[in-house]
Write a structure and sequence with these properties.
3-stranded antiparallel beta sheet, Tetrahydropterin Synthase, Chain A, 391 residues, 14 helices, alpha+beta, rod-shaped, 5 domains, 8 strands
Length: 391
């Protein structure tokens, strides 16, 4: 180094820094010592004074070592600073803690924080929906054992509450879900749980779980609660099915009896009302007839008092007409003597219409006479004439 310096300081030498030929090049040792001194001041070193007191060769080596150490430290500081850059995805939130305490929540994008150990970042996915399946046995309000399988779906809505308020949020959710489903099913009867009450039980369970989680500050949001199955334990399924069948038969028979009652009762009421109306009509008719007969008797009494003989004769004739009008007797009032022809007047007035037709129409066709029994009728007429002649 000394020989190079002397060669550059000679006149006419090839010194690239001496364009005018008067000023010499900078001293490299001095530049290194100045840099070492500055780094020593930054990191608490003594600088280049010690190097000058120790001689030329030793000072040069110590200056090079100090410069290398400063560069390493500077690079380490840069790398440590760059380690604080982090990226948060769209479905995530970044929770920044400073010395273990919550500091801030960052949104999706590129961010920087003071590197470890001062600040740390934990990323929480707030968009994914997790599932939790649970199966348990419980008693209903009517003291029946039922096995209920539930699936709880949830997501992490508040990452800071999820990380710091509860030690085990998922375990807390499991215990809260079991407690909620036991409470809801325990206040419902068996038929409601097994049939139409599933949707209502699921909704009430979801509301109860969410209110409890909010009170604990878990930061979880329950999206849905589904009842996959609600059934009896396998050990008693056969007996319970028999009991259910018997209950269904009872309900069916009760419905049939009720439908029969609904059919027979209105009919009986209608018949009773009809009979009451018939009785009332009969009473009204009898009363009206009696009143009419009484009125007629009073009118007849007035006529009888005015003309007793005529009225008596008329009453006699009307009575005999009523009495004899329904009989088949024929009375002949024959005071004069002479030949009396016997005629079947009773048959002529009743069932002897064919004889009247034959006597009134003697020129009827042969077919009609045969169909009406012409020969017996002709014989009967001849017999009548012969009898009349003998008399």
């Amino acid at each position: 180094m000394g020989n190079l310096k002397m060669a550059w300081n000679e006149k006419g030498g090839g010194n690239p820094w001496n364009s005018g030929g008067e000023q010499g090049p900078p001293d490299l040792d001095k530049v290194v010592r100045d840099l070492q001194r500055k780094l020593g001041r930054i990191f608490g070193g003594r600088g280049g004074r010690g190097g000058r007191s120790n001689g030329g060769g030793g000072g040069s080596e110590s200056s090079s070592a100090g410069a290398g150490l400063g560069v390493i430290v500077a690079v380490a500081v840069v790398i440590w600073s760059l380690s604080g850059i982090y990226k948060v995805d769209e479905a995530e939130r970044g929770v920044v803690t400073q010395f273990g305490r919550y500091h801030a929540t960052t949104l999706p994008g590129l961010h920087w924080h003071i590197p470890f150990p001062i600040q740390t970042v934990e990323k929480v996915n707030v968009a994914v929906v997790e599932r939790y399946k649970h199966s348990t046995r419980m008693l209903t309000s009517d003291e029946n054992i039922v096995v209920v399988d539930t699936v709880v779906q949830y997501r992490r809505e508040k990452p800071e509450d999820y990380l710091f308020n509860v030690r085990d949020p998922e375990g807390t959710l499991s215990e809260v879900s079991e407690s909620a489903i036991r409470e809801i099913v325990g206040t419902s009867n068996l038929d409601f749980v097994l049939t139409e009450g599933r949707a209502d039980i699921a909704q009430r369970t979801k509301d109860l779980i969410q209110s409890t989680l909010d009170a604990y500050g878990t930061g979880l949001r329950v999206t849905s609660v589904n009842l996959l199955d609600a059934n009896f334990p396998t050990q008693v399924q056969a007996a319970v099915q028999d009991a259910i069948k018997a209950r269904e038969d009872r309900d069916r028979l009760a419905l049939e009896a009720q439908s029969y009652a609904y059919d027979i009762l209105p009919r009986a009421r209608g018949n009773a009302a009809r009979q009451v109306q018939d009785a009332e009509a009969y009473r009204a008719r009898v009363v009206n007839d009696a009143q009419g007969e009484a009125s007629r008797f009073e009118a007849l009494l007035t006529e009888y008092e005015a003309a007793p003989g005529v009225t008596r004769q008329r009453l006699y004739l009307e009575t005999m007409e009523d009495v004899l009008g329904s009989t088949n007797k024929v009375l002949l009032d024959a005071k004069a003597s002479g030949n009396v022809f016997y005629l079947p007047i009773d048959k002529l007035t009743g069932s002897g219409s064919s004889v009247i037709r034959e006597m009134s129409n003697p020129d009827a066709s042969t077919a009609d006479r045969q169909s009406a029994g012409d020969k017996p009728e002709r014989r009967s007429r001849e017999d009548l004439r012969s009898r009349g002649g003998r008399q």
